[in-house]
Design goal:
The protein is α/β, with parallel strands linked by helices. It is 36% helix and 18% strand. The protein folds into 3 domains: 6-191, Spore Coat Polysaccharide Biosynthesis Protein SpsA, Chain A (Alpha-Beta Complex); 242-396, Glycogen Phosphorylase B (Rossmann fold), CATH 3.40.50; 403-586, Glycogen Phosphorylase B (Rossmann fold, 3-Layer(aba) Sandwich), CATH 3.40.50.2000.
């Protein structure tokens, strides 16, 4: 075979039901002087069998990775093997039309200054684009470029959906369009960019889907920059904690939500952690392989055998509604291992998503149940079994770990703006409408809104608020945990969810606002700043109960009353000092010891129930044996003396 003019690179992962059409579309090209390099990026499906017959064509070359290396590594490998002077791409879920390669090649021949040519493209079934789709970038399937020394960014540099950042911007020279519609970017749920982008996709969706074992440097066009390599280096690089004399083997089942590294507080006490994780997590559902290490994952494919192998002392199933199906599946397997169910949010979502029955069975059948608040327990009590068959415990399920928060508080911003006050909302400004910000402005209270991704979802709110309350809404980027204290402690107070309850102290009338302990509560507490919430006296509200119990916030009837309270400088300083002194209660490490003791109580209770059950069975068996023995010793003579008819 002569050297090909064009090398077509096909990265593939979990596309066994797409790949045959992709290859067939290449075989049908009017330009026939090509080679195809297929790189199977450790796909766990039947890709190899699907393409077997195509490998008889000497133009087609097939390589496999032992583990998933990512798009950039696959494309760089393909380029390193390329014999053609021109590079084209055919992702295994996309398709060429017959003149695709020829038209791209012709474009580059006609314009020698061009380094890249691109076709028009069909996408989302029936839409068409002459070049870039929307405000994004050229897709792989529509591009041919000259082979250069340039390299795609690989996983150890950056994982991103933005192909401009990954490669296209590196190519020096003109980029020309053919104006011809010759390929299709096929729309389906498991496209790489959908898996990567928040809010449905994201770093954890990506990690789970591609089975990424290493920490990631990650940034998409819909989400914040994350560098797990640096962030978790100290955890990952430290040696494992030696096993304690009374160490527990704890199997985590489900997902760990935002503050996933908190579970290391259990490992640091000498306990052994294992993980069995939900599939298809959302961006905030942290699952394994965990970037901070010290948790041994067990296989999803044969998890029951794995449980028998490791024999955990306790199964700790958690945390949000997405984990309900796998937690329920493990519960129903009747492993014989004590089972603890810890649920944060939210029961109303389980009703909506159709997993309500599974949720209630988790509460009814678990050996131990952990509630995020007393109010949540009261509400669920109406649905769950009244039998005293399990132990209960109250603990917020997503508290952060202590390691990030050893900085001193910052100087108050209001010290440099006499007569004015500054409040913060880390995340969505739930319940704060633009007219509320106008009321804040009238009291000379500023609102600082953090979270660039969230801000993208609240653009209309931001624009309207800026117009109505000029100079009193301030926009800030996302802040990672290690900077919570430094950044947020400069504010006079922080907003919890702002709402008026309507339950009139009737628990069954409570909604999620009433029952929820939002994640921002710990954020504000750790920064040592008082919390703001509308006064819902006479109603059942979990956050208000906690604020009043600990003395860590202001409750007010209206914004005018809030202004009066904030102008009481001594009150605010006392509150600030009290929140700082109570901040430890909002750290997971503070509760790790009592949580382990709860596990031990559950184990002991489970063992006692098993012993009692076995005693009952033994007694029943003894009774049966005694009846049988007596029956043999004293046969029924009347029966035996009867003559049976012929």
């Amino acid at each position: 075979m002569m050297n090909p003019v064009v090398t077509v690179i096909m990265p593939t992962f979990k596309h066994e039901l797409f790949i045959k059409r992709a290859i067939a579309s290449l075989l049908a090209q009017s330009l026939t002087n090509w080679e195809l390099i297929i790189i199977n990026d450790a796909s766990p499906d039947a890709t190899a069998q699907m393409i077997h017959d195509y490998l008889q064509d000497e133009r087609i070359h097939y390589y496999t990775n032992e583990h998933n290396k990512g798009l950039g590594a696959c494309l760089n490998f393909g380029i390193s093997k390329a014999k053609g002077s021109y590079i084209a791409y055919l992702p295994s879920d996309d398709v060429y039309y017959k003149d695709h390669l020829q038209s791209l090649y012709n474009g580059l021949q006609e314009n020698q200054k061009a380094v890249l040519s691109y076709s028009s493209i069909r996408h989302f079934y029936n839409r068409k684009s002459e070049g870039i789709i929307g405000n994004t970038w050229l897709q792989l399937v529509q591009v041919m470029h000259k082979k250069t020394e340039d390299q795609w960014m690989e996983r150890n540099e950056l994982e991103s959906d933005d192909l401009n950042r990954l490669f296209w911007n590196k190519l020096k020279g003109e980029q020309i369009g053919t104006g011809q519609l010759t390929c299709e970017w096929v729309d389906h749920p498991n496209q790489r960019y959908k898996i990567m982008q928040e809010p449905v996709g994201g770093i954890n969706t990506f990690r789970s889907y591609y089975n990424v074992s290493q920490p990631l440097i990650y940034h998409t066009t819909k989400g914040n920059f994350m560098n797990e390599v640096i962030r978790y280096a100290s955890y990952r690089e430290r040696p494992a904690t030696p096993a304690a004399n009374d160490a527990l083997k704890i199997l985590l089942v489900g997902e760990l939500a935002y503050n996933a590294e908190r579970v290391l507080a259990l490992e640091e006490q000498g306990h052994k952690l294992y993980g069995l994780w939900m599939e298809q997590p959302y961006w905030y559902n942290y699952v394994g392989p965990l970037p901070f290490g010290h948790v041994e994952d067990i296989s999803k494919d044969n998890w029951q055998e794995e449980i028998k192998r490791i024999q955990p002392d306790i199964i700790y199933a958690l945390l949000n509604w997405q984990a309900v199906p796998i937690a329920h599946q493990v519960l129903k397997a009747n492993t014989g291992i004590p089972f603890v169910w810890h649920f944060k949010e939210g029961p109303f979502i389980c009703m909506e998503k159709g997993t309500w029955n599974e949720l209630i069975e988790l509460y009814n059948k678990a050996d131990g149940r952990i509630y995020t608040s007393d109010e949540m327990k009261w509400w669920l009590d109406e649905f769950t079994s009244k039998e005293k068959h399990s132990l209960d415990y109250v603990l917020d399920g997503d508290l952060p770990k202590k390691d990030w928060f050893n900085q001193p508080q910052s100087k108050l911003l209001s010290d440099s703006t006499p007569g004015e006050f500054h409040t913060v909302v880390p995340g969505r400004p739930i319940g704060l409408h633009p007219h509320n910000v106008v009321e804040l402005m009238e009291q000379k209270i500023h609102l600082h809104f953090y979270g660039d991704f969230t801000q993208g979802q609240w653009l209309q709110w931001i624009e309207k608020t800026h117009k109505m309350a000029p100079g009193y809404l301030h926009i800030h980027p996302n802040v990672d945990q290690e900077n919570w204290v430094k950044e947020f402690s400069q504010y006079d107070a922080g907003w919890l969810h702002f709402f008026k309850s309507e339950n009139n102290s009737e628990i069954r009338r409570s909604n999620w606002d009433d029952l929820n302990i939002p994640a921002r509560m710990a954020t504000l507490a750790i920064a040592g700043i008082p919390m703001l919430q509308a006064d819902n006296e006479g109603h059942i509200v979990a956050t208000q109960s906690l604020v009043k119990k600990l003395g860590i916030g202001l409750l007010f009837q209206d914004i005018e009353e809030l202004g009066q309270l904030m102008r009481n400088r001594q009150l605010m300083m006392n509150l600030r000092e009290n929140v700082w002194n109570k901040r430890e209660l909002f750290l997971f490490d503070h509760h790790a010891g009592s949580l382990v003791q709860f596990f031990r109580n559950v184990i002991a209770n489970h063992r006692n129930k098993e012993t009692a059950r076995q005693d009952t069975l033994d007694n029943l068996y003894s009774e049966i044996k005694e009846i049988q023995s007596n029956s043999r010793a004293k046969p029924d003579k009347t029966f035996h003396s009867q003559k049976l008819p012929l």
